[in-house]
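Troubleshooting: if your tokenizer reports a length mismatch, compare against these two reference records.
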Amino acid sequence: MTAPSGPLKGMKVIELAHIMAGPVCGLMLADMGADVIKVEKPTGDDSRRFVPPEIAGESAAYMMMNRNKRGIALNLKDPAAVEVLHKLLLDADVVIENYRLGTMERLGLGYDELSKLNPRLIYCEISGFGRTGPYAERGGFDLIAQGMSGLMAITGEGPGRPPVKVAAPISDINAGILAAMGVSAAYANMLKTGRGQKVDTSLFEAAIVQTYWQSAIAFATAENPKPMGSAHPLNAPYQSFKTRDGWVNVGAANQTNWLRFLDVISAPELDADPRFSSNLQRMKNLPALVQILDDILEQDTTANWLSRMEAAKLPAGPVLDILEMHQDPQAQAREMIVDVEHMTAGQVKTLGHPVKYSETPARITQAAPVLGQHTKQVLIEMGYKTAEIETMICAEAVIAA
């Protein structure tokens, strides 16, 4: 494994997390240079069974969420494995966990106990609803969080239609990113004070913060914002329009861009129409405006419209599918599509790190581990002898690839 680099080089993270939110946190920290040791149960992270699709027998979903990490497998029903985990945590900087409330305490690995043994430890908990409040004991699922946060009430084609979930598991992903932000802030504080702390976030809160605009509207008006398709709740036109052969997104929200848009589509008369003379009037008359613009834009192709909009410096872009996004020259230039070498699957693709650092660049150098790939390596680093490791392997206290 290539030595880590990045702004968090030197941070040691123990990831006791599965599926998505916790692994996203670990992934972000690993990309930034932390040594993230992922601890799996003997059957592996549940996402190893999210198949199809597979690549050479390995779950594509698992490989996406766990690149840049080292992986060990422990049977926490065995006291020897619990001892290994305990030793790992004693000199760790961070632990990430997303077990049910009380699980870590039953293993003797709760925050109160570990913080006494390792006062520098940052204890990151990611759950469905947070560790306090009336829902603290509930499990966490993206679908449930999206529904309870209000997101599904504002997503979809329009009022009266069935509720629509954001296709990506946005609460899981955002919870992981928020957790990584929280860990980084706590780490900076620990370096100054020598004291760790608990970092607690949830899928519920991660979904709620996606409603900034809609919550602002509700606070101001005491009215519920409704789904608007791809349109914006505060500005118009700012949405997708059908073209002759596809779709184009147009961001003509302010008055300057509105006038540029009218010039591009050769419709200056719309500026004189009192229904569309200001953003306020355009929002009030949005259905009529959209119908007019749809009729105009369907007269030409996406490529031709985009060429004209780019020349006019009008914010616009195509609606790409996922494979088209992977091939987009900007995604490629920003190194958002990366090749890494997997132990059994060979060269595989993954998504790149979304933040660029001028002095401490993040690097993605390793694919996700196979189950127990680094068990022996990590145990040797901890001071275990070969015979001790083999004894634990034979007893199935640990799994080694």
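Reference record two:
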Amino acid sequence: MNSIDSTLNLKHDSNPIVLEDMERIIAANLPWTLLKNKTIVVTGGSGYLASYLIKALLAISRRYELHVKVICVARNAKSVELRLGSYVGAPDFSVVKHDVSMPLPNDFPRADIVVHSASQASPKYYGTDPVGTLLTNTVGTMHLLEYAEKSKTEKFLFFSSGEIYGVPIDSTRAIGEQDFGHLDPMNVRSCYAESKRMGETMCSAWTQQYGLHTNVVRPFHTYGPGMALDDGRVFADFVSDVVAKRDIVLKSDGIALRPFCYIADATIGFLTVLLIGGKAQAYNIANPGAEISIRNLAKLIAELFPERKINTRYEAPVQSNVYLQSPVSRACPSIEKIQSLGWSPVTGLVDGFSRTIKSFLV
């Protein structure tokens, strides 16, 4: 089998950590031939999760000669250039500049598969642009579902979020796909989670009424190479601090627990649901075995590269209307449902965050 360098015909991401991730994704035991000759539209293609998925789809197609065509839909051409610039101009990759919260143009390309990942997922947007945040997840989803139904699209994969569970009723119990906690619809931070909930319901409705094959993935705290270091979430801040040789500064007591899932594991999970997930079904994509408190995560990350001499300290937070913190102290998901499809995460915290930091240092 040829190396990924040759299969990408020199149009590839040259980061060695990303290349290793792609090799692992390619080697996953999934029915890749189901993608043969398919055209796949990926919205939000310049975003973190979607861009990694696009790289994986192109690598898989080129390795196994599946002749997949990927169409990246994005609002920001600069973001596409930053994340996917080495793919621009390839015959199997094209870019459509469009905001999906606006009606789709008449010449919008037809696709066999739609992956709707466009979303403002960072909490830094919930306070500054709650309207834009919710419109993409609702009106944007409507536009794409209507398009998929009229185009007789074979599959529609919606990227939701672990945020839809709200504040768990019992934080000691793993959250299954049928469990839901409290969300206050009058709290502006709910613009993201409530609109993701509606997007999921819309998928279910289009399946019920039109027979469209929809699936939903609910990612939890996904990290890895290529994530935005100015994302606003604490784990991105911690990685950014190590890369820049700055002390890690905690702005809270750090006792909240979060399960962190490495991007290569998550991408295989997304592809598992896309290829063999049940119709109108939702799946948690997470690594409950990598649950850790924010305080202990800061300590772990600081100690990964001792030569960089990173310390951790606490500073009282400055009140802000920009970053709206989550009220959830613990929300650890069950992944039994997707495990029944054969997927399980394999990357632990030390390996995952080591790989992530190294990817920014090479």
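Descriptive notes for reference record two:
- Confidence is low (pLDDT under 50) at residues 1-11.
- The chain has one domain: 4-224+261-289+332-347.
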